[in-house]
Structure formats: C-alpha cells, structure tokens
Amino acid sequence: MAETLADSPPPRFAHDSEAELARILDFYQVAWRYEPDVFPISWNADGTVVESFAPDFYLPEVDLYLELTTLKQSLVRKKNRKLRYLRQLYPEVRVKLFYARDFKALMVKYGRLDFLADVQTMNGSGPIEDGDDRLGGED
Amino acid sequence: MNPVTTDAAVAAIHADVEEVLLTEAQVRERVVELGVQLTADYADRDPVLVSVLKGSIIFLADLVRAMPIPLSVDLMEVSSYGDATETSGQVRILKDLSGSIKGRHVLVVEDIIDTGLTLNYLLHLLRDRKPASLRVCCLLDKPARRLADIEIDYRGFTIPDRFVIGYGLDYAERYRNLPYIGVLKPSVYATGGGPQG
C-alpha cells in the first residue's frame, strides 16, 4: 500500500532529503512507498546473502525505484556499484539514482535553497557547488 | 528615457546567461514545424489547446499562429511546491479552464517537462473530464529527472540536464522575455531566489 506523510506514524527517513522528496511527491499526489523491497545482490558459497540493496522509494504508479544519494562521494561510488549489480541481476527492475546535483536542481526549481543549506550544515559538509565531485556522477 | 540606462538593463538580462542552448531562429523554425504537424493532425478536430501558466504562454502564442485551423485556447494555473506556505500542502488549481473539455480534442501545450510531476497531476485531472482525446505537446523535454511516466506526443527539443531560461521560462520570475533558450549561470541561483515556473 502506498504511503503519505500523513500516515501515522510516518516512515523514519534515513536522511532529511528523503523526507523532503516525500513531501514533494505528496504535494503532487504521487503514490510512494519507503524502502519496501530488499534486493539481494551478492551471496557467499553456501548461498547466504551477504549484500543487498534496498532503494529508498518505490513509485507504484510508474513502477520505478528511486535511490537518493546526496552527500559523500564514497557512498556515491558504493551505490553506483550496487546499482550496477542490481541492474545485472534484476534487469526488469526500473531504478533511478538521484545524485546530489539532481536533488540540488529540484531545490533550485522549487526555491528551496535554504533547505539545501540546512541539510548540508546538519551533515557537517560544506556547501555543494557545481564542479564539486560530491555532486555525483558515474565512478 | 536614458539610453545609457537602457543599454545597461538590456546587457544585464543577457549577462546572466552562461550559454545560448537554442537560438531564436532554431526555436522559431521548430515551432513552425510543430505547427505544420499539428495542423495536419488536428485539421478537422477543432482542438482545444490547454496551456499551463505562466511558462508556456510564449510557446503557445507562437504555436497557435503556426496552426491556421479552427481551434480554441484555454489556460490553467496550478500551485507549485515552491509556492506552498506549508510543506504538508497539496497542489491546488489556481486558475481552472474557462470552458468544458468534455468530448473535445485536447492538446496540452507545455514549455518544458522536467520531473513531469505537475503535468502528471494535470493529465489525471483533465482525463477525468472525459475529453475525446488528450495529447501532450512540449517545446522542451528534459528527461534526466523524470519521476512520472508522461507520453509526449509532440516534442520540440530534447535538452540536457541544465537550468534553462528564456522564451517563457523563468528563474524567480525573470528572463521570460529572452527570445532564445539559455542556460542560467549557476552563480545566479547560488545566491537564492524563487521557483522556476
């Protein structure tokens, strides 16, 4: 079943940017679920799952998973690698990675640069500028 | 009127443009091509062209003049997430259509489709009003951050993931009057401002 932030209790988001995206989806009445599925992506010799990937959002109306990665470059590389495995193992699954630059563009579009600054301050990082490699991209 | 002040004002609006993505001539030529195609497809359909304020008005104005067939025009305006005074709000219709679209052939004319969230909401709304057909024509398709499945029937240009202004597109209500599609310098929005329409 799809969620909204009006649900009680609302999901516990791992990051403020995820909560902000949920608010945007709610605003435009787009159904979403938070981390509804976990995809195993590597196993050890006896078949035990050793690594999995749980995309942040699932948008059921468009059958699309969405993963936000907004700050540390090390996490971007890790998520890019996981995403690569996911696409190899589950080619039927549609998943989109939202990089820092994508999230920033959304905040610019909606005039929410103050929110962007707050998020970066809370995470102890400096402001993200164009050209900053924290903005993401394929590794 | 002081000519020095006028020159400075004209220079200022162009100075915030990092790069011209599509020239005035390129836009004009493509709009005419779209008009020719739409004229053929809608010649005997008496379509209603529905545009969303405010960004689409310049595209709409040029497009209808490239469609010498019987048609009508209607306008809508919806609130943007960036305009919401409380973050728990929902999109609202600020201006609804003036007439009924039941049984009419409706063509939604959009300036740009980015996430597709606004258009997705509008298409659901318009579909519920039982038009005979419902199609989408956009000048600019920016698919990089698409969050909604939007079927685009007529497309002017597919553009890269840049913040574009001009030809109706704004940043903080500015630059709509540029005759071309330009890329806004990041230094302009790094200092804050309002939403793109």
Considering DSSP H and I runs of 4 or more, what fraction of the residues of chain A is helical? Answer: 25-40%
Round the mean pLDDT of chain A to the nearest integer and report it.
80
SSE series of chain A: HEEEEEHEHH
Radius of gyration of chain A from CA coordinates: 16 Å
Our count of helices of chain A gives 4
Strand residue percentage of chain A: 15-25%
- Order of strands side by side in the largest beta sheet of chain B? 4-3-2-5-6-7
Mean pLDDT of chain B: 91
What kind of sheet is the major sheet of chain B?
A: 6 strands, mixed
Shape of chain A: globular
Helix content of chain B: 25-40%
List the topology elements.
The complex is a heterodimer of chains A (139) and B (197).
Chain A: H1 16-27, E1 33-34, E2 39-43, E3 49-53, E4 57-59, E5 64-68, H2 73-89, E6 95-98, H3 100-109, H4 113-122
Parallel strand pairs in A: 5-6
Antiparallel strand pairs in A: 1-4, 2-3, 4-5
Chain B: H1 3-15, E1 17-22, H2 24-42, E2 48-52, H3 57-65, E3 72-78, E4 93-95, E5 105-113, H4 117-127, E6 133-141, E7 154-158, E8 164-165, E9 181-184, H5 186-190
Parallel strand pairs in B: 2-3, 2-5, 5-6, 6-7
Antiparallel strand pairs in B: 1-9, 3-4, 8-9
Protein traits:
heterodimer; A: 139 residues; alpha+beta; 4-stranded mixed β-sheet; 6 strands; globular; disordered C terminus; B: 197 residues; alpha/beta; 6-stranded mixed β-sheet; 3-stranded antiparallel β-sheet; 5 helices
